[in-house]
């Protein structure tokens, strides 16, 4: 294992200290238990947004704390859900009296820990609404699984719901916007290489030099299929058709296209993927009216990408365009 | 024929030791069908649990097995993370709820505690038998323990039968297709692998039998 670390056990805490040092104008970092909050929290009368999840997906979620996005984020150990005490402390710290939304990615551990935290917060009289993100078309949604995984749509939900909260909308309205984003967003990912959890010290899975995994999860969970690497155009077509056929998105639809790097893929490749995606969607009569390109929900140093499409109407477009000022996403300020 | 407060804390220490010993195995099982963190997380949690006992021991006072197990449960919830945190946290919390105020446990007490703990894990995780989870080891262990206690078996024998049932349940997870947890995303590809949660649960019941049962005059 080669990583820029000191001790595998200290990676999360030491990285948080770096964030704290880099962005004192935007965030405060708390260590017992771990959570990141907006520097000006709580905002009285505003619905607060709290998210969280395992570390190793940076900049998600801590990098999205700030004006127009999250009020707090709870980082767990690498690829491990945070714990209820973190979520409870974060919820209390940012509650401005208008209620708190927990944005939860659909993983068994995250769901259970957030449920316990929501129980604890409600017992103390805080109005908590939980919304689930489950947008990954690579896994089947059925009664016989834990359901789809939450991936790329999470980033878009945090931005759009953050704008709605900033706009002064009420708890139920913000929660409804979250659910609409989840309903209209779909994703699929792929990996060219594995990733190494610092505490594990070796790659999570083995992938041959000429192989790729289609449908990979953001924790290196195996996906739909392993196959020989193909040209980007074919890879994009495979992923994009799985996404488009899922809702489905129809000719005439306007979408936000989000091409996300998994951590080890350079921007030169992500732009190439975006061009292929735009061509593919154009062929289906789907118009890309907004885009986001870069590494925003990563899987440590994994090479690969994910594609997320979000159907847009005027409301979502306006909220997407609203100003945001966080460590990882800054626009219009 | 009873378990003292010191026996109960000894169980926690012994389980922490067993988890440390099997940390790599649990993580290896988890990397096949999950996210490769079960051994690491359980080890972190059980080390923290041992620290809780060390602090309580120094504090002295009236020995209360229930309070001890509850404190362990809370510590696991806040240190393990993942799904294991709420599930093992709930398991120990419920062991504590059922033994509140007790300084000694009879075999029947343990059977009731384990039943409550399994109910708690089911309520939190919403898994059923053959979903390829902890429940596949815990539920048969609970049933075998109750049957053995009802039969009037010696405590050591009852604990051994409970551990054996857990082991059989754990092994029976190998061909199963997972329906809960991260392994369920693999569908058919989850078959052929032993479930890591069922494995750590079997190790718990084996540790109970080894610590409170065999070789000890009770």
Description of the structure:
The complex is a heterodimer of chains A (333) and B (218). The mean pLDDT of chain A is 95. Chain A has helices at residues 11-22, 84-94, 108-123, 153-166, 171-184, 232-244, 267-283, 314-321; strands at 27-31, 34-38, 48-55, 72-78, 100-105, 128-133, 185-191, 211-214, 225-228, 254-261, 287-294, 304-311, 324-325, 330-331. Chain A is globular and about 50 Å long. Helix content of chain A is 32%, strand content 24%. In chain A, the strands form three sheets. A six-stranded mixed β-sheet of chain A has the order 1-2-4-3-5-6, sandwiched between helices. Chain A has a six-stranded mixed β-sheet with strand order 9-8-7-12-10-11. In chain A, strands 13-14 form a two-stranded antiparallel sheet. Chain A contains eight helices and 14 strands. In chain B, helix 4 runs antiparallel to helix 5 (107-125) and helix 6 runs parallel beside helix 8. In chain B, strands 1-2 form a two-stranded antiparallel ribbon. In chain B, 69% of the residues lie in helices and 2% in strands. The N and C termini of chain B lie close together (4 Å).
Terminal CA distance of chain A reads: 40 Å
| Helix run count of chain A | 8
Which radius of gyration of chain B do the C-alpha atoms yield?
16 Å
Fraction of helical residues of chain A: 25-40%
The pair of chains with the biggest contact is:
A-B, 35 and 33 residues
Class of secondary structure makeup of chain A: alpha/beta
The succession of helices and strands of chain B, N to C, reads EHHHHEHHHH
Helix content of chain B: 55-70%
Mean pLDDT of chain B: 92
CATH architecture of the largest domain in chain A: 3-Layer(aba) Sandwich
**Uncertain runs of chain B with pLDDT below 50, 5 residues or more?**
none
Record field, number of beta strands of chain B: 2
So, the CATH homologous superfamily of the largest domain in chain A?
A: Dihydroxyacetone kinase, domain 1
Strand adjacency order, main sheet of chain A: 1-2-4-3-5-6
* CATH architecture term of chain B: Alpha Horseshoe
CATH superfamily of chain B: DhaL domain
What low-confidence regions of chain A span 5 or more consecutive residues with pLDDT below 50? Answer: none
Average pLDDT level of chain A: 95
């Amino acid at each position: 294992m080669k990583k820029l670390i000191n001790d595998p056990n200290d990676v999360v805490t030491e990285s948080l200290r770096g964030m704290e040092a880099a962005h004192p104008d935007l965030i405060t970092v708390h260590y017992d238990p771990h959570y990141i909050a907006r520097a000006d929290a709580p905002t009285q009368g505003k619905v607060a947004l709290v998210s969280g999840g395992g570390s190793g997906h940076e900049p998600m979620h801590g990098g999205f704390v700030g004006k127009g996005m999250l009020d707090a984020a709870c980082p767990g150990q690498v690829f491990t859900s945070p714990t209820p005490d973190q979520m409870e402390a974060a919820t209390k710290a940012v509650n401005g009296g208008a209620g708190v939304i927990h944005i939860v990615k659909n993983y068994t551990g995250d769901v259970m820990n957030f449920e316990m935290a929501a129980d604890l917060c409600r017992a103390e009289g805080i109005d908590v609404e939980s919304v689930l993100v489950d947008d990954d078309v690579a896994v089947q949604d059925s009664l016989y699984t834990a359901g789809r995984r939450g991936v790329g749509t999470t980033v878009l939900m945090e931005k759009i719901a953050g704008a709605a909260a900033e706009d002064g909308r009420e708890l139920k309205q913000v929660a409804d916007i979250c659910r609409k984003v989840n309903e209209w967003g779909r994703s699929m990912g792929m990996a060219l290489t594995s990733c190494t959890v610092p505490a594990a010290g070796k790659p999570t899975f083995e992938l041959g030099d000429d192989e790729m995994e289609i449908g990979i999860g953001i924790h290196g969970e195996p996906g739909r299929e392993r196959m020989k690497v193909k040209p980007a155009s074919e890879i994009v077509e495979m992923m994009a058709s799985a996404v488009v056929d899922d809702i489905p998105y129809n000719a005439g639809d306007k979408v936000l296209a989000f091409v996300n790097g998994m951590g080890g893929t350079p921007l030169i490749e992500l732009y190439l993927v975006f061009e292929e995606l735009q061509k593919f969607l154009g062929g289906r009569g789907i118009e890309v009216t907004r885009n986001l390109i870069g590494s925003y929900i990563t899987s440590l140093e994994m090479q690969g990408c994910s594609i997320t499409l979000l159907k847009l109407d005027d409301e979502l477009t306006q909220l997407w365009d609203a100003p945001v000022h966080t460590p990882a996403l800054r626009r219009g300020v | 024929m009873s378990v003292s407060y010191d026996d109960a804390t000894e169980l926690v220490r012994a389980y922490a030791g067993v988890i440390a010993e099997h940390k790599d195995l649990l993580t290896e099982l988890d990397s096949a069908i999950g996210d490769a963190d079960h051994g690491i997380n359980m080890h972190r949690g059980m080390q923290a649990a041992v620290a809780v006992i060390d602090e309580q021991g120094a504090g002295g006072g009236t020995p209360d097995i229930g309070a001890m197990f509850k404190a362990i449960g809370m510590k696991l919830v806040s240190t393990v993370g993942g799904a294991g945190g709420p599930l093992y946290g709930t398991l120990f919390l419920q062991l504590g709820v059922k033994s509140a105020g007790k300084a000694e446990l009879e075999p029947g007490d343990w059977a009731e505690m384990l039943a409550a703990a399994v109910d708690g894990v089911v309520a939190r995780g919403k898994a059923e038998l053959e979903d390829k989870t902890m429940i596949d080891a815990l539920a048969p262990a609970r049933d075998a323990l109750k049957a053995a206690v009802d039969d009037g078996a010696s405590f050591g024998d009852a604990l051994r039968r409970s551990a054996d049932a857990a082991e059989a349940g754990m092994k029976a997870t190998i061909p199963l297709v997972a329906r809960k947890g991260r392994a369920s995303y693999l569908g058919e590809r989850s078959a052929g692998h032993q479930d890591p949660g069922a494995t750590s649960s079997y190790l718990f019941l084996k540790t109970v039998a080894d610590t409170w049962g065999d070789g000890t005059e009770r």
